[in-house]
Write a structure and sequence with these properties.
It is built from 2 helices and 14 strands. It is mainly beta. Strands 1, 2, 3, 4, 5, 6, 7, 8, 9, 10, 11, 12, 13 and 14 form a 14-stranded antiparallel beta sheet that branches. Strand 11 and strand 12 form a beta hairpin. The longest helix is centred in the N-terminal third of the chain and has 6 residues.
């Protein structure tokens, strides 16, 4: 359960869209495009996979937004469920809804109950530079049964920083990426805190993500395919 909560949604952190000349596009510019990912543990054993689909692109005034569907699978290919979140670019600023960190399997388990979600947006400026510090993000989930709160979950993203520019090669190709590091804290009945890093590329999105504890890898996710 602990690993499921920590790793869920990590690959989704950097999913961004662009508008006009002020925005850099971090997704394929095609509605219906699919991004395929595989996740591995620290011993390089497959732990699961996921598919992100750009369901809808919308342009209004000086902004453009997208609705993204994320479908998760276990290591045997069994469907674990779907979640949706939005991304938006407006006036040169990128916004990723923290709902991207929602765990599809956990949320499906509570689909018959009243689930209340409160979240803000992760922001990234128009022009990334190595050394930049970025803002925090927060996701709060409360689950009620017959009006009684039976469970709460909080996800905090803090200490975000543009660490480096690096070239990353996966099954999907070779990409020039920005490496963004941050701290991920998930609180339920217990608290789990790990360090994490995402490598993002223009016109693609997340190419690689990895989590660490005391500098040692806990697992990672790689982009393995792009279908436009």
């Amino acid at each position: 359960m602990k690993k499921t909560i920590v790793f869920a949604g990590i690959i989704l952190f950097s999913s961004l869209l662009t508008f006009a000349q002020d925005c850099t596009f971090y997704y394929p510019k095609t509605q219906g495009a699919k991004l395929e990912f595989k996740s591995f543990d620290k011993k390089d054993k497959l732990t699961g996979s996921s598919i992100q689909t750009i369901k809808k692109l919308s342009e209004t005034g000086n902004s453009i937004s997208a609705l993204i569907e994320a479908q998760s699978f276990d290591k045997k290919g069994e469907d674990l469920g779907k979640t949706e979140f939005s991304v938006k670019c407006e006036n040169g600023e990128y916004f990723v809804d923290m709902k991207s960190f929602m765990n599809a399997q956990t949320m499906e388990a509570y689909e018959e109950m009243d689930v209340k979600v409160k979240s803000n947006n992760l922001e990234i400026p128009a022009n990334l530079n190595v050394g930049d510090d970025l803002g925090d993000g927060k996701l709060e989930i409360s689950i009620y049964s017959e009006g009684i709160r039976i469970m709460g979950m909080t996800t905090d993203i803090t200490q975000r920083k543009v660490e480096a520019k690096e070239e990353i090669t996966t099954e999907a190709g070779t990409f020039d990426c920005y490496k963004i590091t941050y701290t991920l804290t998930v609180k339920t009945m217990f608290s789990v805190r790990v360090e994490a890093a995402d490598w993002i590329a223009e016109d693609v999105g997340t190419v690689k993500s990895e989590t660490y504890s005391n500098g040692k890898s806990l697992g990672y996710t790689l982009l393995t395919g792009i279908k436009k």
